[in-house]
Amino acid sequence: MYTSGEDVLDFRLNFTVTKKKRAGFLNMSTYNQETVILDNVRGRLESGTLTAILGASGCGKTTLLAALSQRLRGGTLSGQIRFNGEVIDRTRMTKMSGFLPQSDVILDGITVREHFYFMIEFKLPNITRMEKQHLIQKSLRKFSLNGDTKLINLSGGEKRRLSLATELLTKPQVLFIDECTSGLDSFSALSVIHTLRDLAGFHNELKLSSPSTSRIVLLSIHQPTSDIFHLFTNIILMNAGRVVFHGTADEAKTLFDSMNKICPTRYNPAEFYVNTISDPRQCLEIVNYVTSKKKEKIYEDYEEEFDEFCTSSSSEMSLDNEKDERLSWLCQCKVIAHRSILNFVRYPNHYLIELLILFIFSLVIMSVYSNISLDSESSVQDIKGFLIILATEILFTFVYAVFTLVYVELPLLRKETGNRLYSLSAYYVTIVLLMIPRIITETFMYAAIIYFATDIGSDFMIFLSIAFSIMLAGLCSMAYGFFLSGIFSSFFVGIELSGIVDLVLLLVSGMYTNVKFVPLLKYISFFFYANETVSIIFWSQVDKLKCHPNPEIQCFANGTEVLESMGFGTTEFDIYKDYLYQFILTVVLHVFAFLGVRRNVRRSGFY
Ligand SMILES: Nc1ncnc2c1ncn2[C@@H]1O[C@H](COP(=O)(O)OP(=O)(O)OP(=O)(O)O)[C@@H](O)[C@H]1O
């Protein structure tokens, strides 16, 4: 094996997950089965080396990278990782390493320069403005990137280079890269591998920091070309969660040749090795051969005295409890907010479409109810329907806007909290605060269009009270949107199942039944609070009502009787009581939502 460096990373890892299996009559019963994903994977990586993990799809390359970089969550990871002989935990590993996941997760709207700016704000809070500018310019030059290009317009290769440059801002000692050339043409792929070889310090040409910088670079790759294959200083061949071979390309050739598995001339050696080890019979043969050679000390063996120190499952590890010199919590919120606002301003298309849909909604409702008046014979029925639509329709918009937003941003959130750029709580609080102005403006716009279009909508103070009540219900519905994304870990399952929860909330809201029949359950429904408060505000100021000529239709003398017929309160006190209860519901939903989102992030891993 090629060795060169001062820094050494030793590891021995096992990773198992519990999968649910079906059995019995019509597969009705389920049982848990432990599946081994990494099976006693051992190795040693040294600085100044560029090591590639090769193997068939599903053999465990990504899992090994995620486990080694300690960004893996879910399942049970056991074994040990040592850096220069010292056991390292997740906090230290995240500080000293960079991890590039398979896909480049970035915000679309901002430019390359802005992206660098925010990453530096998160990662290097203590450097001066001049140093920041200098670092941005240097990174743009080194990685041939145009600072003014929007991230959405970057090519696959440029995105990869940008992610790489971002990871290198903090000069990590170890760099993990998953599928480092996926989506790149052979020329771009070759150039990325050359860059990585330089970064490893093999040809220490790229002097980003001190001249003697050398790093450990470990990457996974699918079908590298022969040119690329020969740039790796070491290769790891994996099959079914096990390391079959670890050494240089020359050592691999010697091994395979000595077993009479000769790579044909002009054949890509990487392809040949992967194909050979993917055949279970040949793989077993190689493993047995290598084991016997290790006994004869011909091949290097990493069987050292590793203590079984860490047996950890995701739930035991903390996301937010590490104390170090990273950006303060409030500054994290500030940078997240700045970035989100800029991204929104630069790329408002999605929001503008949502706004247009809301506007069309308002116009449709307005056109249906524009003729209602207190003087008509069907006034009570019409106005009841109008107030229900006015109070509740917009709430769905907020619920599903938040629900979608969290799922869209989840990959970025996983990656960035995994890299310890900010804490999950800072992200959560900032996103909630950023949603508030949106809820206020949309609610008032929507309520104004609908309310003032009708004959009953002439009192400005009543409009303000109604819009305020809907806005409070909007804030509660936003918390419910976060809550849904916390309890459902899959977007599509969430969309389907949330319909059932929505139905229950609507049934107890007073829309379809007298709420006296649901004395307690109604308090969990923000639809109920919106309905009751808006109804009280409107009906309590109606002193006289016209009766319908048909004696079979119930006649109400005034607004209070209408409220009583629906089981709603009739006084101002009932409105304030609703505001208070709704506030408590909003806080409770946010607490559970935060815990749920945190569980989803931890479960899916930080990559
Ligand atoms: N948390 C998990 N729960 C269940 N199965 C898992 C988990 N993590 C990994 N696996 C399984 O482990 C195997 C290895 O996955 P991994 O993503 O590491 O493969 P890979 O070699 O990187 O594949 P590819 O080259 O296709 O990306 C797969 O069968 C995958 O389904």
List the SSEs and their pairings:
Layout: E1 8-23, E2 29-46, E3 49-55, H1 61-68, E4 76-83, E5 86-87, H2 90-96, E6 97-100, H3 112-123, H4 129-142, H5 156-167, E7 174-177, H6 186-200, E8 216-220, H7 226-229, E9 234-239, E10 242-247, H8 249-258, H9 269-278, H10 280-295, E11 310-313, H11 329-346, H12 349-369, H13 379-418, H14 424-453, H15 460-487, H16 491-507, H17 526-539, H18 559-566, H19 572-604
Parallel strand pairs: 3-8, 3-9, 6-7, 7-8
Antiparallel strand pairs: 1-2, 1-4, 4-5, 4-11, 9-10
Adenosine-5'-triphosphate binds next to β1 and α1.
Share of residues in strands: 5-15%
Low-confidence stretches: 204-211, 306-323
Helix content: 40-55%
Shape: elongated
